[in-house]
Amino acid sequence: MLLAVILLLLIVFVFLVCNQLYIDRIIPDRSLMRTDLQFKNYKDRIRLLVLGDSFPASAVNPEFLPNSFNLACSAETYEQTYLKMRKVLNEKNSVRVILMPLDIHSFARYRDHYLFSHVWYWSHYASYSELSRLMKTSRFALFIKSKFPVLGFSLRWIARKPAIIIRGWRRYDKTFAVSKTRREEAREVLAMQFKEYKDIDAGFWDVFLRIIDLALAKGKRVVLIKYPLTESYFDEFKKYYDIKPKEFYGIIKKRLAKYKNIKILDYQKAFLDDALFADPIHMNVQGAELFTKRLARDLKRLRIAS
Length: 306
Hints:
Blueprint: H1 2-26, H2 31-42, E1 48-50, H3 54-59, E2 68-70, H4 78-90, E3 97-101, H5 119-122, H6 128-135, H7 139-147, H8 156-159, E4 165-166, E5 169-170, H9 182-194, H10 202-217, E6 221-226, H11 231-240, H12 245-255, E7 262-266, H13 285-301
Parallel strand pairs: 1-2, 1-3, 3-6, 6-7
Antiparallel strand pairs: 4-5
């Protein structure tokens, strides 16, 4: 009996040590935490805040957009964007303009399996009660996941080379143009994004409007951006999906008609050269530079940014 107790205590001790090592050594190297740290160090100079998923995360390079920061995150939903923006705007800030994605896939509920998977991160943006409601998980389970993140440990995080992050922007070095399977890659992405798409998700639309309402209530300008995509993506989209982008965006514009301080910028077909992308949907280094310079010129022309 005594031996069993000693063994149990030893196991608990080793677990706690491993968990603390994970917190001290692994988590600080994760892209989410590195981006947040950069944000804290730069927040007093931010006039333009970029939010959203991996589309803006790869496309907007703040080096070419003065006084901006890219707080977008891969696979982020409007629900997560709302929590991030709420925290930022409820604290002292110098943000004047919010840049948000307006893409069809953003209203498709295909990322639920990934939603708030990093509880140790999202617990900084929402209470356990709020996360419990969003994730349909008990607060106790969330507490355990948050305090003991080593439970979600994967060896791939050690093997993976840390991403290059510049004021939140994720650098992609690949060139989609050299791929011999571009059509197949585009179909794979589309199958993931629209496997259960039927219409604009009512829940996401509600949160989308809450984001806009909060930003406007705080005196911020809101710019909605349709981010660049590859020709392969559009070709496969037209082949396999009975979704009409023109009708979709027409509905969106009608629903947003009551808002007077919103601007929509469309770049979806402005950069169709595959050499500017790392894959069917993410711009690479060269693409991000060209796109961000174009975005900066347009914002200046529209007197949204200097």
